[in-house]
Amino acid sequence: IYIQQCTESFCNHDDYNWDWSLQHVSGKCLSQKLFTFSARAPRIFHIGECGVHHKKKDCSSRLILNKVRHTLSTAQRALFPHQLVVLQAPIKKTKTHKGNGGWGDKRDHALCRSFAEDTTPQSVQAAQLIPEPIEALDNWKKNETLRRRKYLREKYFLKS
């Protein structure tokens, strides 16, 4: 299976998660669906519960970290088995996923396509697609300063 033939479908799918983009390509572009291996239990944990995706009232990074440590210590013997048993699970019917957004910038699409065209380091011309880091930071600082000035002006000097 050559995923490179599905570059447009992968690079233009409006989802910031590459795994959802792969699932999209598997269902829409490839002649054969992709299959994956997955562990019965995770080896990687999300400890950033106190952020954008989760709005819990009782949010404590320390509690979350302690829970992960407890889980790992309990599962220690099973984490690194001497042999693996591979089982085939029934294939799940999946709905068409429209994407979570966050991947709509044409520069991201162009950069993604450039990786697929030729994968040699010389071929990836990322510097032409995005501004220099220092220039981008300077622009952000300048815009942030202007936004703050406008806010202060409106709040304290333009009272109705």
From TrEMBL:
Mn(2+) binds at residue 46. The keyword Membrane applies. One of its GO terms (biological process) is protein N-linked glycosylation. It is a single-pass type II membrane protein. Transmembrane segments: none annotated. It comes from the Eukaryota. Its cofactor is Mn(2+). Disulfide bonds join 6-29, 11-112, 50-59. Its main location: Golgi. Pfam families: MGAT2. GO terms for molecular function: alpha-1,6-mannosylglycoprotein 2-beta-N-acetylglucosaminyltransferase activity; metal ion binding. Pathway: Protein modification; protein glycosylation. InterPro entries: GlcNAc_II. It is found in: Golgi apparatus membrane. Keywords: Disulfide bond, Glycoprotein, Glycosyltransferase, Golgi apparatus, Manganese, Membrane, Metal-binding, Signal-anchor, Transferase, Transmembrane, Transmembrane helix. GO terms for cellular component: Golgi membrane; Golgi stack. This is Alpha-1,6-mannosyl-glycoprotein 2-beta-N-acetylglucosaminyltransferase. It comes from Armadillidium nasatum.
